[in-house]
Design goal:
alpha+beta, Umud Fragment, subunit A, 2 domains, 7-stranded antiparallel sheet, two-stranded antiparallel ribbon, 4 helices, 9 strands, 20% helix, 35% strand
């Protein structure tokens, strides 16, 4: 292979043209600056770079301007679900837990991997029926407490078919 001293210049020109195209894609951006005395101010910066301007720029490279202003969206699964295989969603169709902020139509996030304990809001199965109640456990008894005076406490007897299905971790409530 014969060394051609013009080849590096062609490569540099190609790289510079590529950088000009990238810079022009980000040519119109809005930045929000916090001015100590003026409060919030919006500045608009509009730059269309030409190849000769890029030659004068620092040739070590450009940072990705968009990365500085990019925000990742909120992933509710990431925020609200701790154990994905053991987490389920329920739609509420009872007003028994109004005092706990759980209304008809709300969505409950229920984690089956959390051990039930006294004071937790749980989804329970009693005689084949799903119930949402606050669990009260004592030495030899289990009581399911509603958060609405229209309903009475349910004292689980030993002969009844009872199971705590999961623990409510979050309530998604529309306004």
């Amino acid at each position: 292979m014969i060394y051609n001293p013009l080849e590096p210049e062609k490569i540099i020109i190609k790289i510079l043209n590529y950088l000009v195209n990238i810079a022009n894609k980000f040519s119109f951006m809005q930045f929000i600056d916090q001015e100590p005395m003026e409060g919030m101010a919006t500045q608009q910066i509009n730059k269309n770079y030409q190849a000769q301007q890029v030659v004068q720029a620092n040739a070590t490279g450009f940072g990705a301007a968009s990365d500085d202003f990019m925000e990742r969206g909120i992933d509710l699964n990431e925020q609200l679900v701790q154990n994905k295989p053991a987490t389920f969603f329920f739609r509420v169709n009872s007003d028994a837990m109004l005092g706990a902020g759980i209304h008809i139509g709300d969505t409950l996030i229920v984690d089956r991997s959390i051990p039930p304990s006294s004071g937790k809001v749980v989804v329970a199965i009693l005689n084949g029926e799903f119930l949402v109640r606050r669990l009260q456990m004592q030495a030899h008894s289990v009581t399911l407490l509603p958060e609405n005076k229209k309903y009475g406490a349910i004292h689980v007897e030993h002969l009844e078919d009872y199971r705590t299905w999961g623990v409510v971790t979050y309530v998604i409530h529309g306004l």
